[in-house]
Amino acid sequence: MLRAAAAERNQGPIAEVLKQYLKGKLKLLEIASGTGQHLAHFAEVFPEVDFQPSECEPRSIHSIVAYVDHLKLANFRVPLFVDVSKKPGQWALPDDYAPQKVDVVYSANMIHISSNAAVSGLFEAAGYLLKPDTGLLITYGPYAKDGKISPQSNIDFDASLKERNAEWGLRDISYLKKVAADNGLQFEHMHDMPANNNILVFRKIR
């Protein structure tokens, strides 16, 4: 079971925000689950919600499986292999996570360390999988706002990401709103989070 210090710090504050949205029996698909810590925590906090993790990195998949085996929770599923840069129709999803059957698509700390194809793929998948009118895409991480990045620590972080990969870096919320709209999603709310991060909530409207 891999442990990321950042996930340890932010899983509690994220869960507090999710209490506004995860009510009743829901199906949540996480894209880019990483170590698996978030869903391991959320599955205990929200026992009525069915949590389906996914990843494309073998080491992370092994870590998620270890959490699943350790916790033995009925609502915390074995991870799927998902390459979000591929069309969602090509993913091997279980029948109950078919198009327009998913209540929530959740992704944390992925958008700023992803290719343009992966970012577009996340929103395309949400538009493809979420239930119309009620389905939500919830993302967490650092973002640019109206062409500006703040504070200095986020500016430095953005520069370091772009040095590693030219396609990485903090995406602007206005850009994400446009990508969302192109996939039948409407921006609904932004929550300010610790350490200069935000939660963004988009609703499937068509």
Describe this structure in words.
There is one protein chain. The chain has 206 residues and is of the alpha/beta class. Helix content is 36%, strand content 19%. The protein has 6 helices and 8 strands. The chain has helices at residues 5-18, 37-45, 58-71, 116-129, 152-164, 173-182, and strands spanning 27-30, 50-52, 54-55, 80-81, 104-108, 136-141, 185-193, 197-204. The strands form 2 sheets. A 6-stranded mixed sheet has the order 2-1-5-6-8-7, sandwiched between helices. Helix 1 (5-18) runs parallel beside helix 2 (37-45). It is globular. It starts with a helix and ends with a strand. The model has no long low-confidence stretch (mean pLDDT 96).
Compact description:
InterPro entries: DUF938, SAM-dependent_MTases_sf. The chain is α/β, with parallel strands linked by helices.
Side-by-side strand order of the widest sheet: 2-1-5-6-8-7
> What is the ordering of alpha helices and beta strands?
HEHEEHEEHEHHEE
Tell me the overall shape.
globular
Radius of gyration: 16 Å
Number of strands: 8
Give the helix proportion (percent range): 25-40%
Count of DSSP H/I helices: 6
The percentage of residues in β strands lies in 15-25%
* Biggest beta-sheet profile: 6 strands, mixed
Structural class of the secondary elements? alpha/beta
Distance between the amino and carboxyl termini: 39 Å
* Poorly predicted runs of 5 or more residues: none
What is the chains' assembly state?
single chain
